[in-house]
Amino acid sequence: MRVGLFGLGKTGRSVARSIMNDDTCTLEWVMRKSAHVSRGSLADEIERSTTGRSRVFSSATTPIEDVLDRFPVDAIIDFSSAESVNYYGDAAARRGVRLVTAISHYPCAEQERLRSLSTETAVLWSPNITVGVNLLILAANLLQMISPHADVEIVEEHFRMKKGVSSTAKIIANSLGITECDVKSLRAGGIVGTHEVIFGFPAQTIRLRHESVSPEAFGEGALFAAHQMEFAAAGLYTMEDLLIPAFIENARKLQPRVLAVNS
Amino acid sequence: MRVGLFGLGKTGRSVARSIMNDDTCTLEWVMRKSAHVSRGSLADEIERSTTGRSRVFSSATTPIEDVLDRFPVDAIIDFSSAESVNYYGDAAARRGVRLVTAISHYPCAEQERLRSLSTETAVLWSPNITVGVNLLILAANLLQMISPHADVEIVEEHFRMKKGVSSTAKIIANSLGITECDVKSLRAGGIVGTHEVIFGFPAQTIRLRHESVSPEAFGEGALFAAHQMEFAAAGLYTMEDLLIPAFIENARKLQPRVLAVNS
Amino acid sequence: MRVGLFGLGKTGRSVARSIMNDDTCTLEWVMRKSAHVSRGSLADEIERSTTGRSRVFSSATTPIEDVLDRFPVDAIIDFSSAESVNYYGDAAARRGVRLVTAISHYPCAEQERLRSLSTETAVLWSPNITVGVNLLILAANLLQMISPHADVEIVEEHFRMKKGVSSTAKIIANSLGITECDVKSLRAGGIVGTHEVIFGFPAQTIRLRHESVSPEAFGEGALFAAHQMEFAAAGLYTMEDLLIPAFIENARKLQPRVLAVNS
Amino acid sequence: MRVGLFGLGKTGRSVARSIMNDDTCTLEWVMRKSAHVSRGSLADEIERSTTGRSRVFSSATTPIEDVLDRFPVDAIIDFSSAESVNYYGDAAARRGVRLVTAISHYPCAEQERLRSLSTETAVLWSPNITVGVNLLILAANLLQMISPHADVEIVEEHFRMKKGVSSTAKIIANSLGITECDVKSLRAGGIVGTHEVIFGFPAQTIRLRHESVSPEAFGEGALFAAHQMEFAAAGLYTMEDLLIPAFIENARKLQPRVLAVNS
Questions:
Q1: In chain D, which among 32-61 make CB contacts under 8 A with chain C?
Q2: What distance in Å separates the CA atoms of residue A20 and residue A54, rounded to the nearest whole number?
């Protein structure tokens, strides 16, 4: 899979590293705002990377059409900012490039554009793009549906300076019908990020806990999404859209496996 | 639902309490080995319980046919020992009573009998009958199938005197393709029982943890099973057989819910 | 050690059981409000206990002087209610009986009485009398003093119906200079009780966690206190007063142990 | 405090960053084996750091005497390898420079040298130099001494490729009288490193847990040690030697604080 990446901020750099370390894809180019590449920086390193194929362009000086024609990609992964989609959206959709965007918040106009692009190509938009967090959300929702009488509590832990309830915790809370105010947020030192959902029964407790080790989880998630959408029809997808069919398919496979005791 | 209970050991007593506390069913009778009921004991208390309907019989002195005819039940819940099924199996199956047995180990002969009984009535056999543990097993198996490259570790914690790896941990391990020897068993003080499955990814960790608060979880699980099987066809069931269809059904319901972002 | 117990409520019964199970002491008598002992109850069981020494009296009908003279004790353990100390205080102090009281809240008058009694005998008053919780408080305070720049968070978990922040969490918070409002309280199912103090450093996290398994921890704590005070001078003590000297003494012992590397 | 650093491996680089970020000290120079500094590397960055004071030297080409004379330091922090102490030891000790070394294993000859150097200057040697882990060890030892009957279990978790029981877990185990074989080691994904000591009582459980967030904890610990030893006499120290007096001193301060209830 040939990938083009938007964004070379702290997260973007970590995503670039994940893509370069993945055997199943190549990082064709990176698009950043600034045209300036300082020597010794990651941008510089990507430029001179041994694959001889990665390049860093600036959206301020390079027309996207040129880039897509000279260095075609199968997927664009976007960790830049909300307005980038205006720059690459049409050109990419017209070429059937699938889009994976991890932008937290889109203004209404850009949300509208995503919807419009999704009539032409497969578009995935997920504010938290790690596989683990989305598996957690899914498993938590299933447990709640099967055990509607269980009490549910959500705890999230992050580094001291993080303001407000984490976006991920809000998404978890909303999906479980819990108000954001009831999320318990702990702030301490340099904790990268943990989310725990607790199900309380009269005589037992179940805990689902996700711990972030490093921001590379974002790159892993974006690549997972780009791979999963390889044969997807045009449409607007979430991580859950990709994971739920896998849950159902595997639960069906699981059935004969556990029934083995009977035969 | 009218329930007959086999076994008044430590777990059996706790199950009796759960049934008596549940509004949706009645404890019609308890069957125990010994005929002797000491004053002030739980057996005594059940005998004199305010429902005026519970009775304690001894399998040593009372024919099961008499009990089933005079005090008919919809389900038998068995927390006694492996041989009891020889005593009640045929009489119960002939009357269409569904059977829920939580016996850990059955010799081959009794396993054969369970299979034979399951051609006439619905039989559930599960060595660990708590809902929570079985949800854990199911969720862990699904995660593993979706993330086959994740490392998996299993830790179980129990009170100091518990010998060997817990049966539940063995079941979890086998279902995940892990050898029992790789389970990490901690023994400390009076811990009732916890089981944790850890999924390690390069940049994130997911933990599924089940903590037993009290043995009443067994009663809750047995009643859940007895209720779920109300309209079940004859056959031999595990807890997973009851839970997997609920997983699939709910995952399907979940689909439009998470797709709401698209509409 | 001969012990007299006040209170036969849910916690009191559990404490009674702990004392009866402890080889180093005998339960001489239990004092309760009501004079009525119902057959088959724990009171009945204590009355008929095989030691042939335990008795249940009612404070409504029995003068404490009589009890203390006929059945002398070394320590009184009080899990009843705030006013009991008015009933037994003077008679006990005059006889040099040491007092261990686990009453959560005393009105001013009874607090004053405790202070006055403590001029005659050793009195321990601790709203949370488990050894574990007090070790947690102590260790947390020491960590905070050594690492004053660490962020500190407190989380407590209890069963669904528990109202408000737990008293223990309030004590932990106050001792660490954290306002009670900042304690995160989770309520779920039947969790007996956990308290966790989290120390966040830029590059590491330390968690001190206490989990209650059963209310018998109260009995264990009360007996620990009664034993520790065996040679204590008259005075008003807290659990910390008993534990801190043990900390200091052991830290001193620890010094040559860790220094062994040097010799 | 002026610091000289030995070692620019993965951990060494992280330590260099910690020192440069700390307002209370300056990184005077770094000593590494190789004389070659590649452009854009951290060594390069340190060379050109804005303080204008950091320099990178190679022990292969630069006499240590020259470095110490031209760029004097108060402390040497050593994250390189066992033989380095032969290179810098005498010259540093003669100048009263205090030594902090985090080398895991020293051959007998180098251990002997450390002891000999410690007659001239203060030398700290600790295979795990994070403050948090050493606080954990200390607190765990105190808990065990106060509660000798508690069951103790040790669990450590690390990234998948880590071989054998972690050195830190071995140290914890040895200090608690537990054989290394009884440590439970989990290996999963990219877990940076956690160590948990569990104390099991009949009715309660205490858990002390240390989680590494990033290798910068090593730098923090080395600086803590270098600062603490500012006025230390010549001698061979461990992290515990620095922490135990702080424990005792603070426990003494704590005494009137908790006794406040009495006055």
A1: none
A2: 9
CA D119, D125, D126: angle at the middle one, nearest 5? Answer: 160
pLDDT (0 to 100) of residue D14: 87
So what's the pLDDT on residue A143? 93
Q: Specify the pLDDT at position C128.
A: 83
Which subunits sit against D, judged by 3+ Cβ pairs under 8 A? A, B, C
Q: Which residue has the tokens 């509208």?
A: A112
Q: What is the pTM of this model?
A: 0.87
- Among A242, A7, A233, A9, which Cα is nearest to A121's? A233
pLDDT-derived band at D36 (thresholds 50, 70, 90) equals: low
For B39, which of C40, C191, C213 is closest by C-beta distance?
C40
CB contacts of A236 in chain B (<8 Å) are 261-262
Residue with tokens 């000289």: D4
Integer-rounded Cα radius of gyration of chain A: 20
Q: Which of D69, D83, D72, D67 is nearest to D31 (CA)?
A: D67
Q: What is the ipTM of this complex?
A: 0.84
**Cα–Cα dist D242/D253, whole Å:** 17
A48: confidence class by pLDDT, cuts 50, 70, 90? low
Question: What pLDDT does residue A63 have?
Answer: 93
CB contact under 8 A, D198 and B190: no
Distance CA D262, CA D256 (A): 9
To 5 degrees, how large is the angle CA C236–CA C242–CA C244?
120
Contact predicate D170/D133, CB 8 Å:
no
- Check residue D50 and give its pLDDT: 43
Cβ atoms within 10 Å, residue C132: 26
Q: Nearest CA to D153 among C139, B188, B194, C136?
A: B188
Q: Are D7 and D32 in contact (CB under 8 A)?
A: yes
Residue D127: helix, strand or coil by DSSP? Answer: coil
Collect all residues with Cβ–Cβ distance below 8 Å to D166 and sequence separation of at least 6: D156, D158, D185, D193, D195
Side-chain-side CA neighbours of residue B18 (13 Å): 25
Burial class of residue C222 in the structure, from the number of CB atoms within 10 Å of its CB (0-12 exposed, 13-18 middle, 19+ buried):
buried
Q: Give residue C47's identity as a one-letter amino acid code.
A: E
Q: Name chain C's partners: 3 or more CB pairs within 8 A.
A: A, B, D
pLDDT at C51: 47
Nearest to B194 by CA among B205, B202, B183: B183
Identify which of B208, B210, B236 has the shortest CB distance to residue A262.
B236
Digit-coded pLDDT (tens) for B107-159 = 999 999 999 999 999 999 988 889 999 999 999 999 999 888 899 999 999 99
Q: What is the mean pLDDT of residues C238-263?
A: 72
